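Continuing the series of single-chain predictions for the mutant panel. This is the parent chain; the variants come on the following pages.
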Amino acid sequence: MAQRLVRKLCVHCKEVQPVFPKDIVPPKKVKQHHQAKGCNSCYHTGYAGRIALYELLPLTPALKTAFISAPNDEAAYRRTQAHASLKEQAWKLIQTGVTSLEEVYSFVAL
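Parent structure:
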């Protein structure tokens, strides 16, 4: 299991940003992101509260076989499972405006 806590954007002052930074290529379904601004409700931080991103990889017979056949191939492990990675969950939270791109970018390679 892997987990990360990310700050949630303040619902009172978050701003929509239609353009992504040049070095980040979002998935095709993500058209915009939100940015922290700051107001009296969030003490001018732009964030209020936290939410967890987590990835659980249960050890199944198929995964055990993948470990044995290709011990250094992480992609082989992921193909045996139908779960959302930290990266996929992060993009979902960015797309829905729960957290910002800047908040997630520090620990998840987007």
